[in-house]
Every structure is written in C-alpha cells, then in structure tokens.
Amino acid sequence: MGKSYTIEITDNCAGLAEVDGFSLAGVACDIRNKNDFNRLDLALIKLDRPCAAAGVFTTNDVKAAPVLTDIAHLSLTQTISAIVANSGNANACTGGEGLRDAAETCAKVAGAIGCEKHQVLVCSTGRIGERLPMEKISKGIAEAAACAAPTKENGLKAASAILTSDTKIKVVCAQVLCNGRMFRIAGMAKGAGMIEPNMATMLCFIGSDADASQSTIKQALSYAVGKSFNRITIDGDMSTNDTVLAVCSAKSGVKVEPSTEEFEAFREALTKVCRELARKIVADGERITKVVETRVRGAKSPEQAEKICRAICNSLLVKSSWYGSDPNWGRLADAAGYARTGLDFSKMDLFYDEVPVLIKGEAQAQNKALWKSVVSKKEFVITMDLNLGDFEESLLTTDLSEAYVDFNKGE
Amino acid sequence: MGKSYTIEITDNCAGLAEVDGFSLAGVACDIRNKNDFNRLDLALIKLDRPCAAAGVFTTNDVKAAPVLTDIAHLSLTQTISAIVANSGNANACTGGEGLRDAAETCAKVAGAIGCEKHQVLVCSTGRIGERLPMEKISKGIAEAAACAAPTKENGLKAASAILTSDTKIKVVCAQVLCNGRMFRIAGMAKGAGMIEPNMATMLCFIGSDADASQSTIKQALSYAVGKSFNRITIDGDMSTNDTVLAVCSAKSGVKVEPSTEEFEAFREALTKVCRELARKIVADGERITKVVETRVRGAKSPEQAEKICRAICNSLLVKSSWYGSDPNWGRLADAAGYARTGLDFSKMDLFYDEVPVLIKGEAQAQNKALWKSVVSKKEFVITMDLNLGDFEESLLTTDLSEAYVDFNKGE
Questions:
Q1: What is the dotted CATH code of the domain comprising B5-283?
Q2: Is B201 considered catalytic here?
C-alpha cells in the first residue's frame, strides 16, 4: 500500500517565514562588544497568538541558564508567544545572575509583544562564563519586536542572527500534502562544532502551520531528533546550550493527532527537516574537508551498532586518516574493537561506498586503488557489517583537519 | 610506623640488562621491507631457565595474533623461557595465517634456545593487516639467539628494537631494599599514540630478580597497570596489540608472597616502574607539545571521577585549547558535564596548578593572567573538585597539535 501523503523538501527558502503564523526579526545589537553593528546577533520569532510548543534540550549536566529557563517555562505552559535567541554569548556557567538575565530577557520580550513572561522561550550561543550585556539585549528586543514581520527578508535575517562560526545560514522547508490538505514545516539552525571561541552549540527552531498539541509535537520531535541531530558528531563534544524547539501555529487547519495518517506525515516531514538541517550542520563544521556517513549493520542490538559507530566517528586516528584520504581500515577495525561490544573480527565485512575492503575479516587488497579513490572524495559512506544480528545504526561525521586544531586553539 | 623498605628509581640504566637472569638482544632484520638494516626491529629477552611470568593484555575486541597466542601460552604454563618482540608489523587482523605466523615465531625461538614452544611469548607492533615477513623474522631470531647476552649494550639494543614512532628508548630500573635484602625490577616500553602509520600500540616488558609465582606477579602487575598505563591517554584509542609482560628470574633469592612486606615492596616498586614508563610514553606522544595531569576529586564514586577525567582528557576542544595555551575553563566544564555523571556546576572548584579558576562555579577572573601563565607551561596540573564526595582519580594526557593531525593523516 502506498503512502497517502507526499513530502516536498526545499532549502531554497526563507526558513520559518515560509510558514503561516510566524513573524520574524534579526537585529544587530553588538552582543560581542566589538562595536560591530554590521553583524546580526539577536533573532525574534513571534507568534500571532499563543501556540503549542515543545523542546528537546542538551543532556549535559552543566546546563546553561536559557536551557534551564526554557525547561521551566515549558513545564508551566503548553503554548508560547515568542522565542528570542542571541549569538555571541552563551549565558552558560553564569550562576544565579545568568538565570536572572535569562528571566529578564523573557520579561522584556513579554513586555514588548504583550504576553506572559513564561510564554517566551530564550536561547543563547557563544562565549561561556560571561554575563549577557543586558542593556544591549533590551535595545535589541525593542527593535526586533518593532520590526518583526512574516517576510522572507526577515526570515533570512533571523536565520542569520543565530549564527556563530557557521559560514552560511541553514534553512529548510517541507510542504506536506496529506489526504488532500496541505501544511508546512520549516526550520532554521546553527551549527555544532562551533566555538566562537568557546562552545559547540547547536540551536534549531522549527515552525509548522499544522495543528498539534504540545504532547504530540514532543512525541514527533523526540523521534525526529533521535534520527537526525543525535546522529551527527563532529568532535564528540556536547554543549551546555544545545536546544531544539518546535512550534505549531495551527494556521493550516490540518489537525495532527497520534495514530493518524496526518501524524505519520507530520513526523516524517519533521524528521526530514531535522535530517537536512543536521546534514547542513555537519557539512559546515569548523574547517572540515570531508563528510562521512558511517553505517554499522548486522549488530546484535541497536546499542552495539551505535557504540561502534561512535567509537569510529570519534577516533582521532580515523578522522586524521580521512583528512589524509588514507584508506586505513586498520584504524576502523581497531576503533570498532575498543568499543568492546563483543564483535568478532573474523566475521566483519567492511565497505568504502560499495567497494569491499574486508570480507569476513580478510582484506580485499585487490581493491586498494578503489579504496583510495573513495576516501579521496568529499563525501563517502563507510559500511561495517558485523554479521552478528539484524540491527543497524548510522552516524554522520567529518574528518579532523589541521585547520580544526588551529581554529580551536584559542587565544 | 615507617616502611621497612626503600625503593630507588633510575632511568639512567640499560633496562632489563640491570637485572640478574636476563640475556638480551636487539637485531635488524628489515621487517619494514625497506632494505634498511640500520634499524633494529627484533628484540629477544632470554631467561637462563624457565621463569614465572604473567601478562596484562588489551581488552579490545579485535586482538592481534600475538596477543591471542600469549594468552593461550600463559594458560598452559606458569613459566617462560623467552619473549620475542618485533616492530614494523603488528601481525593484527591477519586471521588464521597470522596465528600460524605467531606460533611459528615462537617455535623458531624455542628451537634456537632449546625450550618448549609454549614457553615463548611473542609481541608485535607496527603495520596492521599485513603478514609478517617470516623468512626475515627467522633469520633475525637465529641472530638474536646467537648474540643474546646480559650486557648493557644489548639491554639498550633490545629497548631500541621495539620502538616505532617513539623518538627515544624508554627504560627504568628500581632497586628495592627490604628487610636487609636487595632485589631489582627493570622495565622497557614503547609508546602509545604511535602509528607507523597504522596503530597505537603500547608494549612493556618488565624483569625482576625477585622470586614470585605467576599468580603473585599477576596480582601485583594488574594493580600496577591500573595505576599507570590505564591512567594515560593520548588520543583515547586502544590498540589491538597492547601488552605488558612481567617475568621474575628469582636470582636475588628474595621470596615475594602475598601479604608480606616483600610483596608490598614489590608491588610498590612495580607500580613506580610502570608509572615512570607511562609518563615517558605520554611525554613522547606523537607531535605533542604539552603533558597535562588531570585530577578529579570530591567525586561520589571512583567511576564518576574517572568518567569525568576521560571526558576532559579526550575532548578535542579541550586538547586544542591546551595546544594554544588558552585557559578555556568553559570547555573543561562542558566536557565534565557531558560525561553525564550527575555533577553540580554550582559546587565545582577548578584549579590550574594551584591557581583558582572556579570556586563553587564562579569564575575567579581576577586570576586570568595567572591561568594563562599556567597553561602556557609544558607541564601543568588541572584539578577539578566536584565537592560531592571523597573519591579521586587522575589521568595523564597531552594536548592536540596540528602536527599530530598532519603526522597521522597517513598516505
């Protein structure tokens, strides 16, 4: 039986401005304290009326003030009126003062647009351990609230204002046709492996004109994040500020409830949007030269597959060899082995794209030239088959370049 | 009550040649197939008679043929007559043929010196996935057996023959005086983070003239390895070949049995020897510029302390900032947090050497210049106090340099 819905994805779009119900703004208020008002650094997402929202947050023990604030607000309310996000300062490791600054940021937005303070969510990314410049933030909020509009230009400005070391904006839009009715899901994100010069934070904001409740959004979002943002790794570090928020304006009138075709379509489109944004984040990783998808299949359990994926993708030796276009399968086998999941090397198959590297633990040296040509590409796929079971996981990652180290060595 | 023993450590020595009962050789047999007979690549440690021995091996799921061979041999015998080790080829991921090559290597040594084949242990380090050049190995064994001698020159030659990308030999000797009687423990090692150009293998051979049984040696060795080689990390990778072997010739006549002062002295001296060799391995890590000891104290459990230590020491962002002499405490707090052990940032103290960086989660910014001067040094200590309990662990590690990536990028 075919699906009763179609999903069309495009990244030639203006992010959340593509979706009915969302007004946007991106303004420059010099949060970096560099007297640079050329750089947009505060984004506002404003809803016409309170809308259902849900979030997924970093599981780091050290959570930044805006993360703690949003978790608290979403436990108080099912609907929100605005999201405010700044780049340049993470408001992380800032103690009680940081929490007060985050609360004041929400209060300023609430005052400017006329809503309850806890119906505002706040995100920050950038330097850690420094107080937010609240006077500048306040001015920025006033300006953003005044100019917020559902225009493409403003959608692009908002997508730009959340960037740190990203080299480009990351937006994507899905148009879903289900049982003859249309709704949209759009997203904007900023990247991981971003350290300007401090933190690797991933932020993502998603808007839809579908009509879904907080719990329905939460359910679909948790699934989508598990299949996308939790399946990428650049340097293995997880930030104090990582946040994904999704809001539904209901403007399309399409009702999305669990166990319906609409829900299936919504969840799949949301997953596609998140996957596309995740891919953009990896491809724009700091000073990377390659994007590598690592698939581990034939595992005894999903956990085994994931552990091995992560060991491979976070191995400095593996990543360095990719950087050098060196088809060094020994490092892959070694990393898979030290995940200590109980694999059997004599059963292992390995492929670079479609080219056999190992069959049952035996190197297919006749393919050596082909191995090299695969790992010399800018994008390729590593497939490791453990031949132990039926489970599979994959992870998208990058190489490790000298420039990465140079870029991250700091002061 | 004071200790009834003294331990004197020196690295100005000839390794195992300092200990009665050990004959040594290091010969060149061009295992790298480069027509280079200038480079020593096969070491032989020969005992006057079968001596008690024990080993600690990699826990990688993918174990190289010599590791599997040694584990099998040590389950068959309590005493050994020789250890043979080669550099240049790891005999790893070589399947049944690799196991036969390892067995044949042992058989050749047994034939040359006159002992049972299972009384020979074998170690290999170097390229992965390639067959050992058995003809060259055989010639090398014959030569080594013929010239093995208990001389300092041969001790240094053996220590040299096991090196791969190490820049210097690593030897140390402990002289122990216990209840008026003397015994010695000496060791030689090659480094981790060694990839020439394939694998990161750590090998260590220890010889003593104490009189201890296999199980006594095993007990002391497991303890010593836990306090030394398992407390270092350069790139977090664990090799298929990592091996530590210890042999006791009994020539001193000093009996070492559990629950005696002699055992306490033996275990402590063995631990010191291993720690000193571990420190040499880290300091000689590939293209590193800094050695950093990370201590986590005030933990709820040893596991929490160790997890946080490892998260910090394996963070690319932390290691990159050390390389740049950037006192970036935010990355340390972030890494500690994503170990997800349940820490409370508002209780965390952090010190660079003795300089306070954080006190109860508050940055001590007045010390900024001092932070910088500490992390600019070639060696420094990071102390993180979680203030949650009484447990402590430490780890010795390095920075991550651009040259590391360049060196490891391979072909």
A1: 3.60.70.12
A2: yes
